[in-house]
Amino acid sequence: MIADLDAIGLLLALAVGTFGYWRVSVSRHQQRLRQLDVRVHVNGIRGKSTVTRLVAGVLREGGFYTVAKTTGSAARVIGPRGEETPIARRGAATINEQVDVVAAHVHDDVEALVIECMAVRPLYQQYSQEFMVQSDVTVITNVREDHQEEMGETLEEIADSMSVTIPRNGVLITAEDRPHLRERLRRNAEARGSRLVYADPEQVADEDMRGFDYLQFKSNVAVGLTLARLLGIGRDTALRGMWKSVPDVGVVRLRTYPVGDAQLLWVPMFAANDRESVVLTFETLRPQFPPGAPVIGILNNRRDRGRRAELFATMVPTDLADHLDHVVTFGAYEETVQQRIVDGGYPADRVHLLGETVQPTLEKILTTIEGLAVDGRAVLVGMVNIHTDQAELLIHHFEQLRGSHGSDELDESRDPARMPLGHVRLRGVAARGRGGGGPGA
């Protein structure tokens, strides 16, 4: 009996201790959030990581001491000078990571936080907004068909699912260009006491886009300019901050590599994995492809993304037939994907299996691609997902070819030329002081 009482007492003590620890952790998290002047939560189907980076660049250049966090192709914390730090994970990613980032990086000097929503299920999205971020401004980049299992089958249902991250009595910024979906977001915002501001890409000039050395969309830039206008940051300052921001790992940068005797233009479009984004990207990039070079599309299918595999297999003979001269399959579902493509009317002899059914070596992959080139040229476009054994072989090979001539995004983020103007000036003042050229000299 005494032993039972001791056990119960121990359990009660543990429960009280756990509850106390939780209360203290919650209190500290809330205090860190309250000290911030600006809190931005970035949601949407496409472009979240890119917009998070652009918005953080606007804030940094506009004088806010800013911390940002992206999920994207590689999770990163972006510090006040634009420097990036990878997020080390033990096990699978969870939304609790957002609290850890705030605890580790939002100290007394930080004025602004920009954080990418990493939740998919509406309940978790709502928890992220109302507890973890409590944003003043939420961005919903766009509404697209993806994650239907969690967010709903229709675009309207998906819009409603993401609307749970709209702040109470705050601002929603969206670049969604379809009026009926934008109106739905507006009604959802007003129900929370917030107002919607449309980030119209028409406000972005062609000249504004020339500061980016990678594929960028006017709709993303429009979000950054819209936030800048709301916060009183000048347009030129905002553009400069966005140009300085380092792109996400999954960004599309066109680079040419030798593959045997052929020259291959590599287009890593893995981050675009819904129909509208892929078609738009092809239409945007097509003028930059070498005339007459065949375009080879890689359908890179993960086993846990069967619905995407089905979607792209349907898209090849319909939406992409005019863009793709050949299709190469990596990863899973190869025979099923091939059958659907061919049944849709795409020629069978232009579909090449190089995934799990073949388990090819890198040499086999490269030899096959070289054989599809015409006059020593070809364009290779990676799509659907980024992680399969075959895709990682190919990506690693291209990284090795770049060698010392290329730098990764972590190196880029520490380039002094990308620092916010205020930090550059402070560094200059410090340097003059060390050199004896200060006011007291």
TrEMBL record:
Parts of the chain that traverse the membrane: 6-24
Organism domain of life: Bacteria
Keyword Transmembrane helix: yes
Record-linked SUPFAM superfamilies: MurD-like peptide ligases, catalytic domain
The Mur ligase central domain, residue ranges: 44-205
Stated name of the protein: Poly-gamma-glutamate synthase PgsB
Gene that this polypeptide is encoded by: pgsB
PANTHER family linked to this entry: PGA SYNTHASE CAPB (PTHR43445:SF1), UDP-N-ACETYLMURAMATE--L-ALANINE LIGASE-RELATED (PTHR43445)
Keywords, ordered alphabetically: Membrane, Transmembrane, Transmembrane helix
InterPro entries named among the record's database cross-references: Capsule_biosynth_CapB, Mur-like_cat_sf, Mur_ligase_cen, MurCDEF_pg_biosynth
Keyword Transmembrane: yes
